[in-house]
Sequence to fold (64 residues):
Amino acid sequence: MSAGEADAEAAKALALLRRAAAMGYRDPATYRNVTALDPLRGRPDFRLLILDLAFPTDPFAGSG
Fold:
């Protein structure tokens, strides 16, 4: 697999992970610990996804 093909496959995988998160699979620990995701861990878009998952869905809920 060429580097371009690998990057395209990784981008597809990230799109599917974002879709899973949108469907409610939002536990960042799961995304951090699943070994199948190891090849994606160094990608900036994967790290951004993890940060998004760690942030509360509604940060102002219950504060007021």
About this structure: The chain has three helices and no strands. Residues 3-22 form the longest helix (20 residues).
